[in-house]
Design goal:
This protein has 354 residues and is an alpha+beta fold. It contains twelve helices and ten strands. The chain binds phenylalanine. The site of phenylalanine has 11 residues, from β9 and β10.
């Protein structure tokens, strides 16, 4: 009995890992283990022999079991220590720097404008940049012979020779989204439509691609007074100061009456400042939606009326953030983008002051 005890306690102490320990357990206490077999032999013994051998065997079995358990815990602790040594990490080290891009001023200003109009109940609508000439012109009361078509320096797509359908165009303004939205939703409707527009024009103040935001509000009793209030409310929120506006009579085929809107500004050292001084700067075109436009979009002009406006996002960004050159917007110059770009975390909100 003492030999067995010595033999197994030594083997347990020497077991290098849990698998070796399990082998020892099976050899001693498994179904065919040495000690299990001895226990079975108890039955063949005389009662006297059994009285001493039984308790001794049970005690041996208990001792081996607890030695196994203790060694198992010891091995697990050692394994954990080993892992902790190799998986050690200094959490006080500074993080690795990552290059961060910036939000383009056009995107930022689009978000700002959208947030302000959303607060006044306008939803965002979008339309395609390649547009049929019907949506871009005819539905907006600009027929084929109309001088506005020529004035707009339109980019036309190509048609195969012999295909006499009118070519599609790169939309020259966001106004076709008025038609698409009224067709889809009917009236009443209150939307703004930000997006890219295209005109074949390139100089100091014009790029062939630029950005507009269209506004449209149609209901039973919307008037020019509502237009004026909405725009003044918008300018005040956008520029963060009360801005005087001037409505000048103008002409667009798709509005009647039409007005161009100027904001109050001053010129200091060749820099424009909005909301002060006695100068004026044109920022948008607007008016009451022409009955023919409502009809073209399937809205009954005898029941519905409202206003529309279109403004240049690029110009608004230049004015608000003092960006001098329009063409720099589209140069993808990294130094310019880092300077005039916005942190992705600076999401425009009304409560954050836009
Ligand atoms: N679409 C006009 C432009 O691009 C702007 C405008 C929109 C004017 C809506 C009146 C109403 O110049």
């Amino acid at each position: 009995m003492d030999d067995l005890k010595h033999q197994y306690l030594t083997q347990i102490a020497n077991a290098a890992d849990e698998a070796a320990l399990e082998d020892v357990r099976i050899a001693a206490l498994g179904k065919k283990g040495e000690i299990s077999l001895k226990m079975r032999e108890l039955g063949k013994m005389s009662p006297e022999e059994r009285q001493t051998a039984g308790p001794a065997l049970n005690a041996l079995k208990d001792e081996i079991n607890s030695a196994l358990a203790a060694r198992k815990m010891g091995l697990a602790d050692a394994a954990l220590d080993e892992r902790l040594k190799s998986e050690w990490m200094d959490v006080t080290l500074p993080g690795r720097g990552r290059p961060a891009g910036t939000i383009h001023p056009i995107s930022q200003v689009t978000e700002e404008v959208t947030a302000i109009f959303a607060d006044m109940g306008f939803a965002v609508a979008e339309g395609p940049q390649i547009e049929s000439d019907w949506y871009n012109f005819d539905a907006l009361n600009i027929p084929g012979h109309h001088p506005a078509r020529a004035e707009m320096d339109t980019f036309y797509t190509h048609r195969a020779p012999g295909d006499n359908r009118p070519p599609h165009v790169l939309r020259t303004h966001t106004s076709p989204v008025q038609i698409r939205s009224m067709e889809a939703q009917g009236a009443p409707i209150r939307i703004i439509c930000p997006g890219r527009v295209y005109r074949a024009d390139y100089d100091q103040t014009h790029t062939p691609m630029f950005n507009q935001i269209e506004g449209l509000a149609i209901d039973k009793d919307i008037s020019m007074a509502n237009l004026k209030w909405v725009l003044e409310e918008f300018f005040t929120a956008f520029f963060g100061t009360t801005v005087k506006t001037r409505f000048r009579a103008s002409h667009f085929p798709f509005t009647e009456p039409s007005a161009e809107v100027d904001v109050q500004c001053s010129w200091v050292d060749g820099q424009v400042r909005v909301g002060e001084g006695d100068g004026w700067l044109e920022v948008l075109g607007s008016g009451m939606v022409h009955p023919k436009v409502l009809s073209a979009a399937g809205v009954d002009p005898d029941q519905w009326q409202g206003f529309a406006f279109g403004m240049g996002i690029d110009r608004m960004a230049m004015l608000k953030y003092g960006i001098p050159d329009l063409r720099a917007f589209f140069d993808s110059d990294l130094r310019w983008l880092r300077h005039y770009g916005f942190s992705a975390l600076k999401v425009p909100t009304l409560h954050g002051g836009i």
